[in-house]
């Protein structure tokens, strides 16, 4: 087992460059299955999840090679139809092969990915949407099995603007016969990115970035080269890290237009936020905090609301802010699980249902803690920077799943941090 050992007390100062979004590139990789031939993705982050998704594609008969930030995927004329159980278990995003393979092959078997440490994560919206398009879907021995000789267009209302369901239905609809309308669709920049790639491939889609997506099915698509949208969650993480540690970080290629509420919250907390180039906001921004942050209330919601993936950063900000704040989680039912680890660091947090009341302290107190998911892991490392003494964050692999070059970026910003291998039982029970 590997852990991050952080010594608190140093503000993060310097610059980082943000690469492509994990939650976009994994779906762009799945979309490559829609067409035979070579898809090239650029601005690809070097993270564990990209490695896992590459392996999912290989087991379906594709070739996938990452050189620098360019991922080349060669898809055969007849890709496989069964996703590997162990890989899907390790990474839920592999469920995104369901829509494209169903559209392309008329049959697919994907292991049920189950829930995880942030909560139960159903597939009912994915399934109901694909069934409306003519698929027959059954659950067989832990697999979701979907069949359809040819999908047809349908009008689909999502109960909740689910990112994954919107993507699976969208990727199935581009090759279906007729028109599909997805109402209450997710609006995340990741959805806009995948719509852009699908349109470059020849798909007919309107409404990307709004709650209503209209897709006119086409007979076939062509493979393309596509650049991945920058990672707004990584950008937002660095922005919050600057404020929490009372530092000064330039977030190059962070897209402020994808982070409006998050940056506004930091502004209310007392941070100074400047665009690097007001004429080209996508160049990035700078966040400076020269005093203890003021407490601000934060509510997570689907985009354009404050991202649930930033919840650990919101709690950590509150934990060191001046005054009490209320943080409300509206997307996942167990995202507060990591708060137990924050309590070990001396944070004063009390939860009631999906609300957390956080009473800020000037300093937290370093302790051994455990990453329960990607974002909680990073939130705990950042909390450790604002803690007295040493904090050890176990299960470092979670952070590898979503943050490229995390250790070197942290060190580049002045953090005292190292990565250490330990025998599992060397680490105290957490
Ligand atoms: N939901 C259902 N039924 C469904 C689908 C979703 O009940 O059929 C519920 C979920 O249980 C959850 C809510 O709807 O309560 C939202 O889930 P959504 O489908 O939007 O999430 P996802 O597609 O599974 C993606 C990201 C998550 C991110 C969420 C919300 C990927 C690979 N994952 O998950 O990212 O938190 O959207 O923005 O894109 C992360 O990167 O650390 C991460 C967890």
Automatic annotation (TrEMBL):
GO biological processes: cell division; cell wall organization; peptidoglycan biosynthetic process; regulation of cell shape; UDP-N-acetylgalactosamine biosynthetic process
Role this protein plays: Cell wall formation. Adds enolpyruvyl to UDP-N-acetylglucosamine.
Annotated family: Belongs to the EPSP synthase family. MurA subfamily.
GO cellular component, one term: cytoplasm
Source species taxonomy: Bacteria, Bacillati, Actinomycetota, Actinomycetes, Cryptosporangiales
Record-listed phosphoenolpyruvate binding positions: 22-23
Localization per record: Cytoplasm
Enzyme class, broadest EC rank: transferase
Primary location recorded for the protein, binned into one broad class: cytoplasm
Keyword Transmembrane helix: no
Domain Enolpyruvate transferase positions: 6-409
Active-site positions on this chain: 116 (proton donor)
Residues at which UDP-N-acetyl-alpha-D-glucosamine binds: 92, 309, 331
This protein's name: UDP-N-acetylglucosamine 1-carboxyvinyltransferase
